[in-house]
UniProtKB/TrEMBL annotation:
Species lineage: Bacteria, Pseudomonadati, Bacteroidota, Flavobacteriia, Flavobacteriales
Stated role: Catalyzes the attachment of alanine to tRNA(Ala) in a two-step reaction: alanine is first activated by ATP to form Ala-AMP and then transferred to the acceptor end of tRNA(Ala). Also edits incorrectly charged Ser-tRNA(Ala) and Gly-tRNA(Ala) via its editing domain.
Coiled-coil ranges from the UniProt annotation: 738-765
UniProt record, GO biological process: alanyl-tRNA aminoacylation
Keywords: Aminoacyl-tRNA synthetase, ATP-binding, Coiled coil, Cytoplasm, Ligase, Metal-binding, Nucleotide-binding, Protein biosynthesis, RNA-binding, tRNA-binding, Zinc
Listed name of the protein: Alanine--tRNA ligase
Species name: Parvicella tangerina
Length: 878
């Protein structure tokens, strides 16, 4: 069975059991501060389990892109080393939200695996939760009894809390689970060792393929378990592992999901992926691991970029950058790939997975370009790092030391991304060892530092009032009478703030690029300020520095509406500029990020060259036209996603759209957006772009301002212009006047230079005329009114045309005096004259000091009247 068909069969099966098939949510999470990446199929349904959102479909199935590289689920170190853990993988899942429970979940899982996929029942084992006395949890007898109807009792194994109690993170929904494992070993080996003894023992061919989670509890901050209002089913089956089982392979990488990538890497490196007993062939093992790491990582990187997450210096972007660098290092170190190669795998990947995930094809060029740039810059870092290691080793060698200090190893690791074994390899070339212990210490210290910096302490919710959903009324109102339904305390770096949830709220929570509202709530004359508003798990959190003294009561909630109005100007302008960019630059322009505040707007988009000043002007003109056309806001608050698509609404990859969306239309601009907009475009007043630049390969950024800020900006520019005009005595044509001035200036400059040359030439002739013979030496001396540079020039000219001379010129410039001595080389050699020493003596006459080389020296002083004496003294000396 081809992998494409395996995926289709899964979804079709659950559709036949009344499940609604939904698309994968984005892999990069944008609105949940507790999670950077989707790490399980259930993430997007978290608020349904917690009861924060209304349930629309009781049964759902999908294939979810997951990434397990950080936080509670982090498989990064296993990836490539083993053959069945990936960074990015697809999780096939079926869900029941308060509908069916264990019985159907177990029955259908079994039916699909054995009837539809026809897996050999003799190779399957299941595990159930054995209970845990410390948590007061009993053995899951219900699951055991249900499994007995399908599978022999000796294939039902007990599992402990670590394996059979599923938790998404430190807090949140959780419950006991039942896993299905498969034994893929050869008949011979299965005869030798009973598969049941290898379940959950990290055997590469006896592995878990499916986990059925019975969601029953919410894990609280104090670690207690509180039962959920209703029970749910959450299952996750590893698509790549299933493909391995169904395609008769013993490694995920041997399936049709990875083989094309592995083949391409073989092509690029000229090496072979060898299916050998890796324990016995160390070199083949290393090459195989490197190829697996690269085949795996390219997927994580490409899918993240398609989801709108570019590699960067912090947060999710940094995680992606690290994955990319890890892949490059393996290629560089083991496969001898010394030029960008990851970007060359993108077409293969798009070819392989583009049908199921069209974003890969649509954004292929951008993905390739971004990866290529990242690779180039990392290769540069690697080169610099290599030089650094060499230098460190050479220095140590010179000092007779034989060990590279731990801090140096850490610096290479931290700054240049050098893995310790690579540093070790290079150090070996210098017959040196590494201070492993010192390195570990430095690493540990850094971890502690960053842990401290990121430490957040969040208390459990204090519930004041039971309430179902917290409605947002902010599209229609900026005020409302609300209750506080719950609150909690959050401490970050010793600073404590409070997050409040209301019965309903006019406050817009940060989202869609737009900043959160600020304002206050008031009760009995006491105002509590709200300094930010954000969304988490579908709850709108209002941030306050203090709690109100009285918590129970009807508060008047008031949004800072002046600030919000300015923000809405910028938000609507963002839509207009998006449309204008597509008109002026082309349809390839796609939004890659935005920031909308009350002060300005920022818009990032895909485009492969600089936006020219003419194009900027066209975009500005278009936006201003749309502003003046005074388009009224056409808002459809609830429209099915499909209908919105038909209406021509722009949709972005990496955005998680609900089935029913809000559609915002101004003239020809139609977008799906939850933000706050102007009632009609003329409110925006003026639109002005103040910056254009690049943020990453293939991504440009525009910064712009609107309304009063734009007026202010334009007025400032006009002021500057007016003062320039005034300075130039109000010419009719300012540009021409400046141009003329510059031209005149450069003409004058040329003239001055010519004159100076002339003057110096005259001075030189004059000086030479006064030369006299003293003891066979040509003594050239003069007192002149020239600048230092001209005298030096003359001195060197004379050096070029005369022999056996002694040149001394005293020059002055107002109160400043200068002496310059030049002596021909033959005199320096034969007579041992030294200009530097001589001038030090003579400088006294002009009240200063100086020095220089044997043939040339200068001195400066404050007494021009002493020049004559200095010249006489020189003459006497000779
Ligand atoms: P394992 O113990 O093998 O790491 P797990 O207990 O972490 O698995 P779950 O969190 O229950 O796995 O995820 C559900 C399913 O997703 C697993 O049964 C497995 O098939 C698949 N899966 C989990 N982690 C990975 C991964 N890193 N790469 C590929 N598939 C995975
Ligand atoms: Mg795991």
């Amino acid at each position: 069975m081809k992998s494409v068909d395996i995926r289709k069969a899964f979804l079709a099966f659950f559709e036949s059991k009344g499940h609604k098939v939904v698309p994968s949510a984005p892999m990069v999470i944008k609105d949940d501060p507790t999670l950077m990446f989707t790490n399980a199929g259930m993430n997007q349904f978290k608020d349904l389990f917690l009861g924060n959102s209304a349930i629309k479909d009781l049964r759902v199935a999908n294939s979810q892109k997951c990434l397990r590289v950080s936080g509670k689920h982090n498989d990064l170190e296993e990836v490539g080393v083993d053959t069945y853990h990936h960074t990015m993988f697809e999780m096939l899942g079926n869900w029941s939200f308060g509908d069916y429970f264990k019985e159907e979940a177990i029955e259908w899982a079994w039916e699909l695996l054995t009837d539809i996929y026809k897996l050999d029942k003799d190779r399957l084992y299941v595990t159930v939760f054995e209970g845990d006395s410390s948590e007061n949890l009993k053995v899951d007898q219900e699951a055991i009894d249900l499994w007995k109807q399908h599978i022999a009792e000796d294939r039902i194994l007990m599992g402990n809390k670590k394996d059979n109690f599923w938790e998404m993170g430190d807090v949140g929904p959780c419950g006991p689970c039942s896993e299905i494992h498969i034994d893929l070993r050869s008949a011979e080996e299965r005869m030798k060792t009973d598969g049941a003894t290898l379940v959950n023992m990290d055997h590469p061919q006896v592995i878990e393929i499916w986990n059925l989670v019975f969601m029953q509890y919410n894990r609280m901050k104090d670690q207690s378990l509180v039962p959920l209002k209703s029970t749910h089913i959450d299952t996750g089956m590893g698509f790549e592992r299933l493909a391995m089982a169904l395609q008769g392979k013993t490694s995920n990488y041997d399936t049709d999901i990875f083989m094309p990538l592995i083949n391409k890497i073989e092509d690029l490196s000229g090496l072979n992926y060898k299916p050998v007993d890796e324990d016995k062939h160390k070199q083949a093992l290393e090459i195989n691991i490197a190829m697996r790491v690269i085949a795996d990582h390219i997927r994580a990187i490409a899918f993240s970029i398609a989801d709108g997450q570019l590699p960067s210096n912090n947060g999710a972007g940094y995680v992606i950058r690290r994955i990319l660098r890890r892949a490059v290092r393996y290629g560089y170190q083991t496969l001898n790939l010394k030029e960008p190669f990851l970007c060359r795998l993108v077409p293969t990947l798009a070819n392989q997975m583009g049908e199921a995930f069209p974003e890969l094809n649509n954004q292929k060029m951008l993905i390739e370009k971004v990866i290529r740039e990242e690779e180039i810059s990392f290769f540069r870092t690697l080169e610099t790092g290599l030089k650094r290691i060499d230098q460190i080793c050479i220095n140590l060698n010179a000092e007779g030391k034989k060990e590279v200090p731990g801090e140096a190893v850490f610096e290479l690791y931290d700054t240049y991304g050098f893995p310790v074994d690579l540093t070790n390899l290079i150090a070996q070339g210098y017959e040196m060892t590494l201070d492993q212990e010192g390195f570990e210490k430095a690493l540990e210290e850094q971890k502690n530092r960053s842990r401290k910096a990121a430490e957040t302490d969040t208390s459990d919710w204090v519930v004041l009032k039971e309430d179902d959903a917290e409605e947002f009324i902010g599209y229609d109102y900026t005020e409302g009478d609300v209750y506080i339904t719950r609150y909690r305390e959050v401490t970050v770096k010793d600073k404590t703030i409070y997050q409040l949830v209301f019965s309903y709220t006019p406050f817009y929570p940060e989202g869609g690029g737009q900043i959160g509202d600020t304002g206050y709530i008031e009760l009995d004359g006491e105002k509590t300020f709200i300094f930010d508003t954000k969304k988490e798990n579908n709850l709108i959190l209002h941030f306050a520095k203090e709690l109100p003294k009285v918590l129970n009561g009807r508060f008047k909630a008031v949004v800072n509406s002046a600030k919000r109005k300015l923000t809405s100007n910028n938000h609507t302008a963002t839509h207009l500029v998006h449309a204008a960019l597509r008109t002026v630059l082309g349809e390839h322009v796609e939004q890659k990020g935005s920031l909308v505040t009350d002060k300005s707007l920022r818009f990032d988009f895909s485009h492969f060259s600089k936006v020219t000043p003419e194009e900027i002007k066209q975009v500005e003109d278009l936006v201003n036209q749309e502003i003046r056309a005074n388009h009224e806001l056409e808002e459809t608050r609830q429209i099915p996603l499909e209908k919105a698509r038909e209406a021509g609404a722009m949709m972005l990859f990496g955005e998680k759209y609900a089935d029913v969306v809000r559609m915002i239309k101004f003239g020809d601009s139609i977008e799906l957006c939850g933000g706050i907009h102007v009632p009609s475009t003329s409110q925006i007043g003026t639109f002005k772009i103040i910056n254009e630049g690049s943020v990453a390969a293939g991504i440009r950024r525009i910064e712009a301002i609107t309304s009063e800020a734009a007026d202010q900006y334009i007025n400032d520019q006009l002021d500057t212009l007016a003062s320039a005009k005034e300075t130039l005595k109000n010419p009719k044509d300012l540009t021409k006047a400046i141009h003329d001035l510059l031209e005149q200036n450069s003409k004058l400059q040329k003239e001055v230079e010519a004159l100076k040359k002339e003057q110096a030439k005259g001075a030189k002739d004059e000086i030479l005329k006064n030369a006299k013979e003293i003891n066979g030496i040509k003594f050239i001396s003069a007192k002149v009114a020239l600048d230092a540079a001209s005298v030096k020039d003359i001195a060197y000219q004379i050096k070029g045309q005369e022999d056996s001379f002694f040149f001394i010129v005293g020059s002055y410039d107002g109160p400043k005096a200068m002496l310059t001595i030049m002596i021909s080389d033959d005199l320096v050699k034969e007579k041992g004259l030294h200009a530097g020493n001589i001038i030090r003596e003579l400088a006294k006459e002009i009240g200063g000091g100086g020095g220089g080389q044997p043939f040339f020296a200068t001195a400066g002083g404050k007494n021009p009247d002493g020049i004559e004496n200095a010249l006489t003294k020189a003459e006497e000396l000779l």
